[in-house]
Amino acid sequence: MVFGAVVRHSFINFDDNAYVYENPWVRTGLTRAGLIWAFRTIDDFYWQPLTWFSHMFDCQFFGLRAGWHHLHNLLLHTLNSVMVFLVFRRMTGAFWRSAALAGLFAVHPLRVESVAWVSERNDLLAGFWFLVLLWAYQWHAERPGMGRYLAVLASLVLGLMSKPTLVTAPLLLLLLDTWPLRRRAIAEKLPMVPVIAASMFVTYVGLQRLGTVNVGAAIPLPHRIANALVSYTTYLELSFWPHNLALPYPYRADIPSWQAIAAAFLLAVLTFVMVWWGRERTYLFVGWCWFVVGLVPVIGVVQAGAQSMADRFLYLPGLGLGIAAVWGAAEIFEKRRAVAAVVYACLLLGGAIISRQQVAVWRNSVTLFAHSAQVTRNNAIAERQLAAGLEEEGNFAGALPHYSEAVRIAPEYYIAQAGYALALERNGNTAAAVEHFRAALKYFPDFPIARDHLSHLERQTFGATTRE
Hints:
Elements: H1 16-21, H2 24-27, H3 32-40, H4 49-62, H5 66-92, H6 95-107, H7 112-116, H8 121-142, H9 146-160, H10 169-178, H11 192-210, H12 221-240, E1 249-250, H13 257-277, H14 282-294, E2 307-309, H15 318-332, H16 337-361, H17 365-375, H18 380-392, H19 396-409, H20 414-426, H21 430-443, H22 448-467
Antiparallel strand pairs: 1-2
Helix pairs in contact: 3-4, 5-6, 5-8, 6-15, 6-16, 8-9, 9-11, 10-14, 12-13, 13-14, 14-15, 17-18, 18-19, 19-20, 20-21, 21-22
């Protein structure tokens, strides 16, 4: 009910093109050549063959009708929400607390990005296999055996084949050993290490080939650490007060020292409190560590991409905050259940209302990136994608100021420079187009679109001069 409007939404022009409607391997559906490509490719975002299979399945049966692709995402998230309830009810035996956790997970506004963005199918698939992993792990913990352990390993492998962010799974299982399973089984996590290491290696190689991994020169390590600290506190803020949600959140070029110090201090205090209280209320310690550890692969110490953070990164780590909040509130309201029910109903309704509003933002590229540019500052990617979306709608004049803003914010953003140059060329402003094509080639000398168009314009200019 909350996310249902997505079935009337379009694809967006940010990754959906590369994942689906401009990807020749995917759009042709389930073919032998496509399946081989899905297993072999490591430099198209991640090594994620199951995700590619999923998109190929949609194209096979529904073509490029975006509503069906969105419906697939919605059904996966619905299934995951039910799985959260089933898994935690089985692990803890707490029916209503597990239901409350699943409800908050289902409708929280930070879920919108993962559900409403077709390209984030990998989040939903990885989430599903992780929850299957938890179910299998509980099954194994009840009566350990080789067959049951192989089911755990198989779930992990399938999850990593969907998205490699599950590399923290062994650590999360260790946390669940502490609570609620209350067992000691460190050695049985060791066979998972080579699987995780292989996934990390393939992911790193692929992202390096794609050119999205910062290896130290572009963004110094102290700045990346500062961004990670501030991002942790921002994730906490958005979890409890979801506002000004955007895609993407631009990377913070200048982080004042006091912000990084304040964020580090707050995180240290919260960690101390959770450890202290966690001596008797272990769920607080487990929930907090789940949140912190779950975000490690995407927190930005190893920076991949141009975003400072992203709502989708909290899809599974956010469960940790939910565990701490729900079990903590249940203890506080243990003798005031009617009050607890009213408070929870208000939270659920509030989350549902905000999520529906945010779902509407994702209707198409123009609505999404106009909103993102409005609620963030100096968001060059949002400005460029908004300009491209306006062009797709035929509003070429409306696109020009957004291209201009994108290159003002980030002159090195060669894709925006080339897009602006193409728009200027189409508008008849050849001299300005040449200037921005040259700017694009300054930052990416082999960019074919800029190179070819610049060569064409220079030949035209040279021919005109010769005739004169």
